[in-house]
Specification:
There is one protein chain. The chain has 438 residues and is α+β, with helices and mostly antiparallel strands. The protein has three domains: 102 residues, Schlafen, AAA domain (Methyltransferase, Cobalt-precorrin-4 Transmethylase, Domain 2); 243 residues, Heat Shock Protein 90 (2-Layer Sandwich); 68 residues, Winged helix-like DNA-binding domain superfamily/Winged helix DNA-binding domain (Arc Repressor Mutant, subunit A). It is built from 15 helices and 20 strands. The strands form six sheets. It has a six-stranded mixed sheet with strand order 11-10-14-15-17-16, covered by helices on one side. Strands 1-2-4-3 form a four-stranded mixed sheet. Strands 7-9-8 form a three-stranded antiparallel sheet. The relative contact order is 0.07.
């Protein structure tokens, strides 16, 4: 059996392996075997009986926990089994905090350590109490904005329009022992960067990855940041197609307004603020990329994120305020909502990427129109084929060759160029292979 989240093999004992026990204790628990190779085969350990006596004392003395230490005698040799239970409180090895993730051990430092310690004590970053800040320091206009949005969305009773800021904070559970939670300052204080470096949003327009044409920094509390960011995206960074229905003027944005807002709300709710980096939005001619520092829950993947799932924001108090204000329609449906709105607008499904502490949402414009395709240095056949076969969603090289009366070799060359430009995806490598719209 290979090593897993809960199993580690060592052929012999060294005291540094107490770090692995520390990692198991801080995660989901696990079992460390001494006297087995990396594949789980017994190789035996010579001093097994002495280890049986020494290890329990070392584990208790250095780590402050109790683990089951068992001796197993086999024909292949003796081995030790150390069973570590998950611990409710943080465990450290000589001041170092280790954590088992997957089949590896990590030493927690900086932001990751802060987050781990808070979680062990049942706290989230946004729920920490902030001293020396009073309700009078918060922005009355933002409370009024919050109440009106909540009433409009039927999340708050109309009677609450007369609520004082203190009553609003009480209803949002942002007051504890007469002290404000950090979430209250992020949501209602005029300058949350005073308490969290990088608590703002950067927007930039790029011609290429290295050609920044103009940019804006959006400051203020989180409600103000979301409103101002949406205003900039829709009026300065993207275009609106103007049409008329009778005498009514209709503006159709390049990207669905609600999908963009949902992505920004997700970035704000899930961001790991201790990292100190602002949320970054990069706008290109053909796409918008939204980045925030943040990780998925430990047992999640992008695949799980795209399925039905519970809502587990990094900052639940902030997320709850957004829900009560009507910004968020329902728990756990943000990603589905973004995908549905892009599909309804005829746009490609957005891409979600999580690598380390980097989380990206990438919206792509529907570039399958003559104006956009003409900018990509394509020949007339390629442009015509993309427009002609778009509704079908796929094309084969034989269909392409037949329609334009060209050789199979020329057809494959044309289609391969479209694959290189990320306009099509290839399935197969013969003249019957399919080319799917990206």
């Amino acid at each position: 059996m290979p090593e897993t989240q809960n199993i580690e093999y060592k052929s012999s004992w060294r005291d540094e392996f107490l770090r692995w026990i520390c990692g198991f204790a801080n995660a989901q628990g696990g079992t460390l075997y001494i006297g087995k190779d990396d594949n789980g085969n017994v190789v035996g350990v010579k001093n097994a009986k002495k280890l049986l006596e020494d290890l329990p004392n070392k584990i208790t003395t250095i780590l402050g926990i109790v683990a089951d230490v068992n001796l197993h005698e086999t024909e292949q040799g003796d081995y030790i089994e150390i069973i570590v239970a998950p611990q409710p409180n943080p465990v450290n090895y000589k001041g170092e905090y280790h954590y088992r993730s997957g089949s590896t051990k990590q030493e927690l430092k900086g932001v990751a350590l802060d987050k781990f310690l808070l979680q062990k004590y049942g706290k989230k970053w946004d729920s920490v109490l902030m001293p020396n800040i009073s309700i009078a320091d918060l922005k009355q206009e933002t409370f009024d904005f919050f109440k009106e949005r909540g009433i409009e969305s039927n999340r708050i009773d109309k009677k609450c329009r007369k609520d004082t800021p203190e009553q609003v904070l009480e209803n949002l559970n942002l007051l504890e022992n007469d002290s404000l939670k950090r979430a209250a300052l992020m949501l209602f204080y005029h300058n949350p960067e005073k308490f969290a470096t990088g608590a703002y949003i950067k927007i930039g327009f790029f011609r290429t990855d290295y050609d920044l044409r103009y940019q804006d920094d959006v400051h203020g509390n989180l409600f103000e940041q979301i409103e101002r960011t949406m205003e900039l995206l829709l009026t300065k960074y993207t275009k609106a197609i103007i049409s008329y229905r009778g005498l009514s003027r209709i503006e159709t944005y390049e990207y669905p307004e609600d999908a963009l807002r949902e992505a920004i709300l997700n970035a704000v709710s899930h961001k790991e603020y201790p990292g100190g980096a602002p949320i970054q939005i990069k706008v290109y001619d053909d796409k918008i990329m939204i980045w925030n520092e943040g990780r998925l829950p430990e047992d999640w993947t992008i695949t799980k994120l795209l399925q039905n799932h519970s809502s587990r924001p990094n900052n639940p108090d902030i997320a709850n305020a957004f829900f009560r204000s009507g910004y968020v329609e329902s728990w756990g449906r943000g990603i589905s909502k973004i995908e549905e709105q892009c599909a309804a607008a005829g746009l490609p499904a957005p891409t979600f990427i999580n690598e380390g502490s980097d989380f990206w949402v990438i919206f792509r414009k529907d570039i399958y129109n003559k104006d956009e395709l003409s900018k990509l240095n394509l020949n007339e056949r390629q442009i015509d084929a993309l427009l002609f076969f778009k509704e079908k969603g796929e094309i084969t090289s034989s269909e392409y060759a037949e329609k334009y009366e060209i050789s199979d070799r020329t057809a494959r060359r044309d289609l391969s160029e479209l694959v290189e430009k990320n306009l099509l995806k290839n399935e197969g490598d013969t003249n019957l292979s399919k080319y799917i719209f990206a």
